[in-house]
Specification:
Largest sheet of chain B: 8 strands, parallel
Order of helices and strands of chain B: EHEHEHEHEEHEHEHH
Oligomer: heterodimer
Distance between the termini of chain B: 41 Å
Structural class of chain A: alpha+beta
CATH architecture of chain A: 2-Layer Sandwich
Radius of gyration of chain A: 17 Å
Shape of chain A: elongated
Strand order of the largest sheet of chain A: 4-3-2-5-1-6
Number of helices of chain A: 3
Strand content of chain B: 15-25%
Distance between the termini of chain A: 13 Å
Chain lengths: ~150, ~220
């Protein structure tokens, strides 16, 4: 690879390192069941709160915030690509009226703040949001520690 | 095996378009697979693609055209040997350099008995956020446009005529040789064209000399 290309590549990775990235995978439980409408309300709530927290704490644009509800009965993918977006864009193929358990993944990428800030902000909203829906969560995977920046260069 | 890359910054509509394009190719009788390389360790997109019945592979943990180029080549070789798709659509992260990705794809020829052919490099440019993106991540957006064979002004259903015109002008300025077209996953505008391009057109293989020349011409001025 040429020196020019190496320089360009490094520049691009530096630019990408200005993107704060964090992802978390949760097992969600609702002993009495939670309706599909409530799950959709929850998705909107938690994703918009994540965006709000990041934008109020130094982020200047949303890269994307995506979520994925997954269970045997189907899935719902949610995405926000603009902080001004009024509601979460949903792709819904969930074929159940209510659920007692599902997996929830959220991936937050914003520009202007570092990974650790995105992680702290994202995790800080979990208890309050989940409390509103009478649901419990357990962290299955935390994708902060495995994030890598330009250290390979 | 043909490799098609659909580039674009985060939120440019790659995944939504890719699903529609994938469906279009399947309807035309193509056997396809999708490789997703997201920024970060996890990819929601690959979960979504798989959940919707398409053959997906996720490559996580870095940039597909550099530190995990070996993983990408390995993935392509395994796809060829195990699934044998005619077309592999690659959704790279917002940082992969198209020429680097071509080279990484060709590494797979050493790992399996196949020849890689490249579809034209397609870059999606989000017309609804063009001002914001240029302000925050101009370099990334410019690079993705510069190395494209075809640039699609995406989300034309939601963008204003002024934003669409501005996006087109930007593309013409950065990459005068690129073909420019409109795309909307909502209305379907442009989707047939993307499918035709992927199926019927090819882009040159990686060539070190061509890349050197392009870098000299395109990037040499950046510090002046």
């Amino acid at each position: 690879m040429s020196g020019d290309h190496d320089d360009l590549h490094l520049d691009l990775h530096r630019a990408v390192d200005e993107l704060g990235k964090y992802a978390i995978v949760l097992k969600v439980k609702a002993d009495d069941g939670v309706t599909k409408q409530e799950i959709i309300r929850f998705i909107n709530h938690i994703m918009k709160r994540a965006v709000q927290e990041c934008m109020e704490n130094g982020a200047d644009i949303v890269g994307h915030v995506k979520s994925f509800v997954y269970c045997d009965e189907g899935n719902i993918m949610g995405s926000i690509v603009d902080a001004a977006q009024e509601s979460v864009a949903l792709k819904d193929s969930l074929k159940a009226d209510s659920l007692k358990q599902f997996e929830f993944t959220m991936h937050v990428i914003v520009h202007g703040i570092w990974d650790d800030v995105v992680r702290d902000l994202t995790r800080s909203i979990l208890p309050e949001v989940f409390a509103d829906y009478d649901m419990d969560f357990e962290i299955l995977d935390d994708h902060y520690d495995v994030e890598k920046g330009i250290d390979h260069h | 095996m043909k490799v098609s890359q659909i580039a674009g910054f985060l939120g440019s509509g790659k995944t939504t378009a890719l699903m529609k394009i994938g469906e279009g190719l399947v309807k035309r009788g193509c056997k396809i697979a999708i490789v997703v390389n997201d920024v970060g360790e996890i990819s929601i997109d690959s979960k979504y693609v798989e959940a919707n019945g398409l053959e997906a592979r996720e490559i996580a943990g870095g940039c597909i055209c550099c530190q995990i180029a070996g993983s990408f080549a390995e993935t392509l070789a395994k796809l060829h040997d195990g699934f044998d798709p005619e077309i592999v659509i690659v959704e790279p992260s917002g940082v992969a350099i198209p020429w680097g990705l071509k080279r990484a794809a060709e590494y797979s020829e050493a790992k399996s008995d196949m020849v890689i052919e490249h579809a034209p490099v397609i870059t999606l440019v989000d017309a609804t956020r063009i001002d914001m993106l240029l302000k925050a991540v101009r370099r990334l957006v410019e690079t993705q446009i510069r190395e494209a064979d075809v640039c699609f002004v995406n989300k034309v259903d939601a963008a204003t005529p002024e934003s669409i015109a501005k996006t087109e002008e930007l593309i013409k300025t950065i990459n005068p040789r690129a073909e420019i077209a409109h795309l909307s996953s909502v209305t379907g505008e442009g989707l047939e064209m993307v499918t035709d391009i992927i199926m019927n057109k090819v882009s040159p293989r990686y060539d070190d000399a061509v890349e050197e020349e392009m870098l000299r011409k395109e990037y040499g001025r950046r510090d002046e």
